[in-house]
Amino acid sequence: MTQTCSKCNNTFDEKLVDDPGAQKYSSCPSCWNEWTTHAVMVINELRLDMSLPEHRKALKKQEKIFFGLEQGEQIQKNPDNP
Ligand SMILES: [Zn+2]
C-alpha cells in the first residue's frame, strides 16, 4: 500500500518501512533515516541519557516536533545558519 510521508509529503510504499516508529508517523524511509541521524544529534545536544524516562520523553517530544505532530522548538544543528 502506498502512504504519504507526514514529513516530506512524498508517497512511498509502506512495504519499504519495517521500523514500527516510522510506521507510527507514516514516515518514508529517507525521512526516518533523517530522524535517526537527527536523534543522535539531539541526544548529544541535550545530553540525554536514554536510561532515564524523563530524557526518553524529551527525545519523544523532539521526534513529534520533527514529524510535525507537535509545535515546539526544533533543535537546529547550525542555529546561526537556519
Ligand atoms: Zn519523507
Describe the structure.
- This protein is mainly alpha-helical and 82 residues long.
- The protein has one domain.
- 45% of the residues lie in helices and 7% in strands.
- The protein has 3 helices and 2 strands; from the N terminus they run E-E-H-H-H.
- It has helices at residues 20-24, 29-46, 53-66, and strands at residues 2-4, 11-13.
- Strands 1-2 form a two-stranded antiparallel ribbon.
- A hairpin with a 6-residue loop joins strand 1 (2-4) and strand 2 (11-13).
- Helix 2 crosses helix 3 (53-66).
- It starts with a strand and ends in a 16-residue tail after the last helix.
- The mean pLDDT is 91.
- Bound molecules: zinc ion.
- Zinc ion (ZN) is lined by residues 5, 7-8, 10, 27-28, 30-31.
Write a short abstract of this structure.
The chain is mainly alpha-helical.
Secondary-structure blueprint:
Layout: E1 2-4, E2 11-13, H1 20-24, H2 29-46, H3 53-66
Antiparallel strand pairs: 1-2
List keywords for this structure.
single chain, 82 residues, mainly alpha, two-stranded antiparallel sheet, 3 helices, 45% helix, 7% strand, binds zinc ion
Poorly predicted segments: none
Q: Calculate the mean pLDDT score and round it.
A: 91
* Overall tally of domains: 1
Outline the biggest β-sheet. 2 strands, antiparallel
Radius of gyration: 13 Å
Bound molecules: zinc ion
Q: What general outline do the C-alpha atoms trace?
A: globular
Number of helices: 3
Q: What is the H-and-E element order?
A: EEHHH
Number of strands: 2
Helicity, as a percent range: 40-55%
Strand order of the largest sheet: 1-2
Q: Ends: how far apart?
A: 35 Å
Structural class: mainly alpha
- Strand percentage: 5-15%
